[in-house]
Design goal:
single chain; alpha/beta; three-stranded parallel beta sheet; 8 strands; globular
Length: 283
């Protein structure tokens, strides 16, 4: 219980892996899950929030970022094993005939629900407070957070850690936090125990794998900086900018007119969707 409470403090509540595990856990216990992330599932609250002026709505995101991010001096407490305990705690004892493991996506939650199977996400998101770096200065952000990225990777040898910096899709949040994506390389003891104890004898482990890749820069052993991600901006635009990016930065009031990310030296699979588990699933 204590491990799950610690992990809940470090997890980013709007993360896809977190929400899939939480939603499926409630579904498999016969409970509704009307709302994702931090807010209750209320149409009235959603309508009220949507009625606010754009400037007011945007101003809430940096505040949420600061609230969700943990102080940098607490980053050494981030534990991938604690997070796995939190995931395992979302599900009843079973046994389950099928368990789904791997890349989070919208399709996974429907597939797992149809199979009445728990889902164990390969990747989860944590965040640290960052009020110093500018969203449009990727080199500055990488250099400022590299010691933290390396620290989290060193203390969690079963994961690779990606500092994900996206000033197009995550711009307001980057004013208050920095994202660290933990991508499992092995199942780890907690998830192995989950399979041993809750997968029915002769049951099936369904591994979901993404093969998508993205340019990255290594900042240490199992530690990477990733600039941008899939969305409305192409990978080339993130790295080469252009007229559309210049116009966007001007409208945002940025002192920059182009992004100058660090030169990539790796192209691993995208941590948002994750890759194959480098472990044997044992039951």
């Amino acid at each position: 219980m204590r491990q799950r409470l610690r992990a809940a403090r470090y997890l980013v509540d709007f993360d896809s892996g977190v929400n899939v595990a939480r939603t499926l856990g409630r579904f498999l216990r016969g409970k509704d899950n009307r709302g994702l992330s931090v807010g209750p599932g209320s149409r009235r609250l959603a309508d009220l929030a949507s009625s606010l002026p754009m400037r007011a709505r945007r101003a809430t995101f940096p505040v949420m970022g600061v609230a969700q991010g943990i102080p940098l001096d607490q980053a050494h407490r981030i534990s991938a094993d604690d997070i796995s305990e939190w995931v395992a705690g979302q599900y009843a004892r079973g046994p389950y005939p099928v368990v789904v493991v791997g890349s989070p996506s919208g399709a996974v939650v429907h597939l797992a629900a149809a199979l009445r199977a728990p889902y164990l996400p390969q990747t989860t998101l944590v965040a640290v407070r960052d009020l110093q770096t500018h969203p449009d200065d990727p080199v500055g952000a990488m250099e400022a957070l590299a010691p933290t990225t390396r620290l989290v990777a060193r203390r969690n040898p079963e994961v690779a850690v990606y500092h994900m910096h996206d000033p197009a899709q995550d711009r307001p949040m980057l004013e208050g936090m920095a994202y660290l994506r933990l991508k499992r390389r092995t199942l780890g003891r907690t998830l192995e125990r989950f399979l041993a104890e809750r997968l029915a004898p002769g049951g099936t482990i369904l591994v979901v794998e993404s093969t998508c890749t993205w340019r990255s820069r290594a900042v240490g052993e199992r530690a990477y900086f990733q600039f941008g991600c899939f969305g409305g901006v192409s990978e080339e635009e993130y790295h080469d900018s252009g007229a559309r990016i210049a116009d966007y930065l001007a409208r945002e009031g940025s002192p920059w007119r182009r992004w100058e990310p660090p030169e990539p030296d790796a192209r691993p699979r995208v941590p948002r969707n994750s890759g194959a588990l480098e472990a044997r699933c044992r039951a």
